Amino acid sequence: MPKNRLRLVGALATALVAAGLTTGTPAQAHDRPATLAELAQRHGRYFGSATDNPELTDTAYTALLGSEFDMITPGNGMKWYATEPQQGVFDWTNGDEIVNLAHKNHQRVRAHTLVWHSQLPGWLTGREWTADELRAVLKKHIQTEVRHYRGKVYSWDVVNEAFNEDGTYRETLWYKMLGPGYIADALRWAHQADPHAKLYLNDYNIEAVGPKSDAYYQLAKDLQAQHVPLDGIGLQAHLALQYGYPTTLEDNLRRFSRLGLDTALTEVDIRMILPATEEKQAQQADWYRDLTKACLAVRRCVGITVWDYTDKYSWIPAFFPGQGAALPWDEQLRPKPAYFAIRDALK
Ligand code: XIL
Fold first, then answer.
1. Which residue positions does the secretion signal occupy (predicted)?
2. Per-residue pLDDT at 30
3. Which of 161, 165, 207, 331 is the catalytic position?
4. Ligand 1 pocket by Cβ (under 6 Å)
């Protein structure tokens, strides 16, 4: 690598250089290892990471975020509580910050999420609505947000986490007041507001074939029969070593593919009960390798996103006490066995 580039990258890159990871552009591809994004691109896939606004002041963090990935998801910045904190008052600050950063780094954006039961603002959950009122609130939120990001995002997670584990509809405020038709309505409204964005339904524990993924399979077929705009199914893939690997993942991806739908692994992390022993990290690496291979094996699996890339900013320890070490880079931003396993699978 030429001296002037090293100087540009600066002291912060010392650790990365030591690890053999530098932040070049494709023009320098011959003198540094390919990024996960570049390796994925060779297969016509993307490799993405979630990120969140508070982390963006960490320059060592943003250096890797900006170089290793070609797809970005805002972990929180586009959720309802953030974007419509008062009824009819929209705040794009956090979402825009991430979209602008991604575009500066020539990355695309998986936008997340429009309709969910969680992280809703108090004004919405703190009172009763009639069905007509709630439908109007939902329509306005979707159309205003999707219109704001029109042409700037690759896809939308339109509805998030709509089903229970047994494949019945989750009794959210949307379902209870509007019935199951809220999903088709949301997709139609989003499509009107940005006809080019890919529209997804997204959920966890739908990696394997089972009652919950069957519910999505059936719903997808029903929506297609009604000509509702639906482009893909997002499998969050928040996996945990103690629950076993979803061995039917590839078959599951393939059945959605056969419906003519895209699929994506949208929020991947593989947590473990701490401490993270060498053995657990090796098993985790195997799982990262296997899920990457599963996506590559299915034509319409368009890409993989990790739910942030470093244990430093993982949501896991706060939500699953005693668990963690779920991501391919450790808290010091050093690549773990999982990172090398992903590279292996992409090679
Ligand atoms: C998580 C964020 O990462 C956290 O920062 C936040 O406190 C809670 O939500 N499924 C999803 C994501 O679809 O939106 C969630 O993100 C993780 C689970």
1. 1-29
2. 66
3. 161
4. 52, 75-76, 160, 236, 267, 315
pLDDT by 10-residue block (mean), the chain, 347 residues: 42 42 50 95 98 98 98 99 98 99 99 98 98 98 99 99 99 98 99 98 99 99 98 99 98 98 99 98 99 98 99 98 98 98 98
Question: What's the domain range around 207?
Answer: 35-346
pTM: 0.92
> Residue 307 falls within a domain, yes or no?
yes
Active site residue 267: yes
Supply the CATH number for residue 200's domain.
3.20.20.80
Could you give the count of Cα atoms lying within 13 Å of 304 in the half-sphere of its Cβ? 33
**Which residue is closest in CA terms to ligand 1's atom 15?**
75
| Residue 283 within any structural domain of the chain | yes
Specify if 23 maps to a domain.
no
> How much is the pLDDT for 319?
98
| Count of domains observed in the chain | 1
